Every structure is written in C-alpha cells, then in structure tokens.
User: Fold Kelch domain-containing protein 10 from Folsomia candida.
Amino acid sequence: MEHYFLSFFIIFIISTSLVKSQFVAVESKVKLPKAKHGSCAVYDGNDSIYILGGYSIDTPQSSEIYKYTISSDTIAQIGELPLPVFEMSGSIDTSGNMYTHGGMIEIMHENGTLDYHSLTEIFRFDPVANTTSKVADLPAPNLEMVSIPGDMPNTAYILAGYHDREAIVLFNMTDLTASRIANLQKAYWFMTAVSSGDGFAFIFGNEDDNIAPTYPVAKVNLNTRQASYGPPTFPRLLGMPAAVWDGKFAYIIGGYGNISAGYNTDTIIQFDPSTLENKVITVANFPTNGNPELFFAWTSAVYVPKLHRIYIFGGINRGLDGCVVADCTTWRDGIWYIDLPQTSRAAMLPSIGYILLSCTILAVMISTKIQVQY
Assistant:
C-alpha cells in the first residue's frame, strides 16, 4: 500500500508542476496611430472602445479620438477633442456620450520654453453625431484623478487628483453639473479606484502624508463617505496605474515595481474585495519587454464583460531608478488584451483536474494489481 501512496505523490507532483499561475498579454496586430500615455479609454458596452487624447513625445499635442473595433481588431481616428488634453479621467452616459474631465495641456511659448496648464473643462463627445463640445467645468483645475460610475444613473464620481487629493466630485451627466460634495478620509496621489456596483468604491494608492513601501486599500461607502481599510499590502505606486472591475475582482495594471517585495513589473494585481487582499499575477508578454528595471504606467484600460477580457492601450515604460527624461522613457503604441479566467474558481480548476487525474491513475493501478493477483 505504501507503494501506491508513493506513486500517487509522484504523479501529483509531476502533474501539478504543469500548472502555470499566469496570464498572457496578447498584442493586437494593430497599433495606436501614435505612441502615447495619459489617454482615456471608454468602452461603449458593445463592440467599440474609444481612446481620447493623450500625450506623445513625438507630437505631444494629441487631441485625436480613436475608435477601436473589437470584432475586427481595427482602429481609426474619428474625431478630435477641443483641446489636446492628457492625464484626464473619463465617463460615459446612458446615451453613449463620452466625457473627459480636466487633465492638462502643454503650451509652447515663443521663446521655446514649455509650460503645462491644468484644466477644469469637461468635454463631451457624441459618437453618433461625431461632435465634441465643452459642457461643464470641474470645481477647480485637476489632473490624474480617477472616475468611477456613480450610485445613480448618469452620474460619476471623480476622485482625488494631483491638485485636490481628497476630493470627491459628483458629475451629473443629465444636468451637466460638477460639484465637490465631500472629502476622502485620506489624501491620495498616485492612485486609482474601482466601483463594485453595490455602493462601495475601492481606492488603491499612495497616502499623501505617509511615505511607505505599502498601503492599505480603502473601502469607501459612497453614501456615507466613510472608509474601512484592509491590511497594508498594496505596493507604493511610482506612476499612475489603470484599474478595471470584472464583477468579482479588481485588476490594477502598471504603476508599481517593488521587486524585493514580490511586486515585479511584469505582473498585474488582482484584488479581492471580500478579503481586501491582493494577489500578484505574472503576465507573459507584459509591456515591460521582460526588463525588470522598467515599470509600466500611465496606460488606459477597459474591461469587456462579454469576452471576460481586459484591453490595454498605450502607456510608457520608465526606469525604476526614477529617471523621468525622454532618454530613459519609452512611449508605447501597443494595444494588448488579457483573457481572464472564466469563473472565479478557474484558477483552481487545473489543480483540481490534476488531482482527479492522479486519483484516477492510482485507482487504475490498484485495480490492475488486484486483477493480476486474482
């Protein structure tokens, strides 16, 4: 009998060693017409993803609006924003109109010097009429904030940002008003956030008054504005990440790189709201090109429910040593997608399958032995 247990153990070890706990980033055959970061990607809920604005090192003034068609894997420019804005947030209303909130523009002076101007403008893009216009203003100029769906139809919460790091701004896309309604309990920058669709938001990022290697994720009640906090296990951000919500987990893409703590730059973070804990998942072909000295940030991403897939658009690679000049920064023009497991238990299924396979093989061995003895 000991022989059988030994056989089972060997079979189990060999079979489970074949399980790979990683995702794959598949690069699209098409690319963004310009390599850029700080754009805003908005999914229309059907077959199109719109990429608005952004910043490119070659032609920084980038007001283009691109339409990426999922089924045909094609991209085309279909319009322009009134200003070449980047590092803004975005939202979509129930009619399919899309909005950009704030951000900044680059200004070239006559003497050749550059200046950057933060915006209050909220622009609306109508994909049916193919028109853009200014429709509202933020209460104050801001950039690098995050927008999440509001708890009422046609509303969005615009959270934090470089200039107002505690802000909760409510944008009403019906009456086109934006008002600062409350403060977050902590100030954040860099940061990102998702809404779980049940009255809560989860905030991931650096606490402004606390320099630390890791931080807790905040669970914010959108009605009371009160927050509770998980364990301090989310890594300090080096740049702006993207985040998506798939109905069960949040996924945070880019912005970090703490190799000694296990937060390698070729990974994404899966966040479980039931435990407020993170799981680091290796991503093959992630847009750091296998270079552990580079991190990926200022990208835009959307989740497409019908495919259970994350799409990622553009971004930049930057050195972990903090270098920020063009010599050590690479602008990306790629479009990638990551297929997620089909169920929340999918990550467990390979292991379970191999255990069952091992048990089956062991049963056959025992049965064969018994028959031989008879």
Remarks:
- DSSP finds two helices and 27 strands in the chain.
- The chain has a mean pLDDT of 86.
- The longest strand covers residues 309-319.
- The helical segments are 2-16, 349-373.
